[in-house]
């Protein structure tokens, strides 16, 4: 018998919002989070499950979060403590952001904005000076106040066409340098590398610290299935026997018509002195069985090119914005570096998240600086992302003004900014994270 009451069509319950969880010390949650990272980066989600405990034990997971929906990790985010070298050699506290993914099934839902905003606010409250990240997609991170602050360049050197003297030995004395070069094993590199790198990074604005786990992976103490092949390591020591430079590389072996035609790939080359860098590059270019060298991530204007009798033998194969920086404490950031000359500048800073905005008086000198909030009229008005590039020395105020990225409120302020903020060499960050 039919009912005369209206037919009730059942309605589906609204899907619950995805749940943001802290991974912390939960190994099972971390394993799910790893799958989410691999899925978000479009790599096979399986990986080697035997590696999960090593990753879990070696990584700082205190600020690692995932978004979970119906039992799957659909977005990932991690930050950790970092030191970033400012012009002048001082290291500032940074909130390093990494492992940022959102699965294709959950994009455009504001998940990244929630994760990023919460992390940056916590970093500001914690007292971090800046935040950093390596941007895979250019157009995303400006929304959160980041800006390009240190570029990277990769070159390929044609060693046969470089015009090097065929009588070269590859030893430092070819260049009139003292000291010697020898091979080092992974154990020695693990022992001396951290102290050598600490001396190196103090000389280079944009460089970041390398923690113990970084060195464990680099030297093979911990190896993962996606790690590159084992490296060769070259150590340069000065006339007193002090380690001053380290080059690590692999070689792709190729034979053409019965002759070696190998490609040498530099994985890392650091020097605590210019002489160390020159000696190591010279040695690499003198390898008889190598016809090409891929330099890895180098300075935007690497002085290594000038070592070649024919600099055209080094051609740029890639060049891109690499390290992005976001001010968290504008006054502390501008106070952390040295400046080319004495002077004052008032900057009005706009921040999309309201974390580091305001008007600040910078009193600068080659010995240091002071920066405080002020009621004085602004000389320049700019966004946090533009300020980041100016602060580290990657950008010039003149070019930013020409691009419409900052406003000159006081005539001559753009020139004054370049006089104060300019650096002799653009910043360089050799490491990803």
UniProtKB/TrEMBL annotation:
PROSITE patterns hit by this protein: GNAT (PS51186)
Residues given in the record as acetyl-CoA binding sites: 100-102, 108-113
Species whose genome carries this gene: Streptomyces calidiresistens
Keyword Cell cycle among UniProt keywords: no
GO terms, biological process: aminoglycoside antibiotic catabolic process
Record's protein name: GNAT family N-acetyltransferase
Family annotation (Pfam families): Acetyltransf_17 (PF17668), Acetyltransf_9 (PF13527), SCP2_2 (PF13530)
Spans annotated as Disordered: 1-20
């Amino acid at each position: 018998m039919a009912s005369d009451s209206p037919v009730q069509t059942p309605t589906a319950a609204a899907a619950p919002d995805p749940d943001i969880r802290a991974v912390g010390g939960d190994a099972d949650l971390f394993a799910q989070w790893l799958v989410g990272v691999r899925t978000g980066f479009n790599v096979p989600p399986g990986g080697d499950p035997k590696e999960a405990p090593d990753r879990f034990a070696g990584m700082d997971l205190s600020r690692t979060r995932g978004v979970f929906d119906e039992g799957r990790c659909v977005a990932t985010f991690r930050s950790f403590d970092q030191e970033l070298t400012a012009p002048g050699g001082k290291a500032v506290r940074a909130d390093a952001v990494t492992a940022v993914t959102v699965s294709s099934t959950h994009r455009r839902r504001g998940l990244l904005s929630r994760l990023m905003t919460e992390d940056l606010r916590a970093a500001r409250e914690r007292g971090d000076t800046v935040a950093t990240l390596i941007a895979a997609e250019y157009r995303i991170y400006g929304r959160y106040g980041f800006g390009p602050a240190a570029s990277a360049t990769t070159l390929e050197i044609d060693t046969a066409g470089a015009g090097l003297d065929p009588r070269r030995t590859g030893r430092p004395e070819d260049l009139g340098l003292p000291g010697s070069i020898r091979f080092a094993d992974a154990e020695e590199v693990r022992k001396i590398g951290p102290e050598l790198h600490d001396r190196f990074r103090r000389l280079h604005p944009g460089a970041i610290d390398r923690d113990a786990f970084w060195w464990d992976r680099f030297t093979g103490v911990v190896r993962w299935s996606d790690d590159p092949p084992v490296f060769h390591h070259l150590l340069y020591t000065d006339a007193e026997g002090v380690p001053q430079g380290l080059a690590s590389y692999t070689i792709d072996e190729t034979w053409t018509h019965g002759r070696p035609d190998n490609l040498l790939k530099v994985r890392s080359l650091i020097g605590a002195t210019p002489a160390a860098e020159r000696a190591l590059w010279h040695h690499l270019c003198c390898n008889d069985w190598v016809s090409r060298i891929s330099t890895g991530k180098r300075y935007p204007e690497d002085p290594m090119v000038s070592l070649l009798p024919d600099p055209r033998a080094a051609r740029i194969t890639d060049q891109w914005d690499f390290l992005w920086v976001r001010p968290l404490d504008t006054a502390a950031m501008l106070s952390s570096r040295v400046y080319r000359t004495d002077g004052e500048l008032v900057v009005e800073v706009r921040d999309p998240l309201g974390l580091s905005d305001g008007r600040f008086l910078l009193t600068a000198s080659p010995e240091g600086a002071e920066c405080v909030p002020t009621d004085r009229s602004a000389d320049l008005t700019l966004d946090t992302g533009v300020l980041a590039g100016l602060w580290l020395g990657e950008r010039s105020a003149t070019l930013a003004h020409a691009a419409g990225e900052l406003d000159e409120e006081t005539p001559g302020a753009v020139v004054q900014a370049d006089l104060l903020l300019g650096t002799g060499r653009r910043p360089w960050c050799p490491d990803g994270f």
